[in-house]
Design brief:
two-stranded antiparallel sheet; 6 helices
């Protein structure tokens, strides 16, 4: 399968939002919010258009990854700029074919060229551990509410890049989305059934619960 990776263009926006909706629908919770998050991210100051990459197969977008500026609020009182990865999405019919890994590798390559120090995300350690990520706890980095969490994963972009920034990882305010705005935005797409109790939702609940006090 020959996949083209390229920067997303404005004319791609709605197609990419639909890909994201299809990828996340009923995955973590009944329905999803990630397509709306992607929609509003492009207008926020933290958005990095050069790290907004689509995967194209046979003329259609089948995957997307986006990054935003985030910070680690260091225990030393300093703020360290890092990247936050996500949403990352691949159409269900194309999952398991290595497309997500290609998108991650491309972002890592571009981020190194930019001179970034590290990338963080919340996700399944079993998956992201295969793509250069490890528990942020290894670097002394906690959630914004000061917990070590298995879901919080970090990737050093060069040796020792994260070794001096113990602290709390804080995402951009754009992630604090309004559920009512999500519902309104979702009405622009074809109706889909919201389902509870899927295996992926149970897995998400299990991973999200694996937190411990940093003190």
């Amino acid at each position: 399968m020959e996949i083209e990776l390229r920067t997303e263009r404005p004319e791609d926006y709605r197609e990419t939002e639909n890909v994201t909706r299809e990828a996340f629908w009923n995955h973590f919770v009944p329905g999803c919010c990630e397509h709306y998050l992607l929609h509003i991210m492009r207008d926020c100051p933290a958005f990095l258009p050069e790290l907004d990459i689509v995967a194209v197969y046979d003329g259609s977008i089948v995957g997307n990854v986006i990054c935003t500026k985030s910070v680690v609020k260091g225990d030393d009182g300093k703020e360290y700029e890092v990247l936050g990865l996500g949403p990352i999405s691949v159409l269900p019919a194309y999952q398991g074919k290595g497309i997500g890994g290609k998108l991650i590798a491309r972002v890592q390559e571009l981020a190194r060229e930019r001179g970034d120090r590290g990338i963080f995300l919340y996700g399944d350690p079993d998956y992201y551990g295969r793509h250069g990520f490890t528990a942020a706890e290894r670097f002394g980095i906690r959630t914004s509410d000061d917990y070590f969490a298995d879901a919080l994963q970090g990737c050093e972009l060069y040796e020792g890049a994260l070794s001096d920034m113990r602290g709390r990882y804080v995402e951009d305010a754009v992630f604090g989305i309004d559920p009512a705005a999500v519902d309104l935005f979702d009405r622009q797409f074809p109706p889909k059934e919201k389902v509870s109790g899927t295996p992926s939702q149970k897995r998400f609940t299990e991973i999200a619960a694996r937190r411990k006090n940093a003190k």
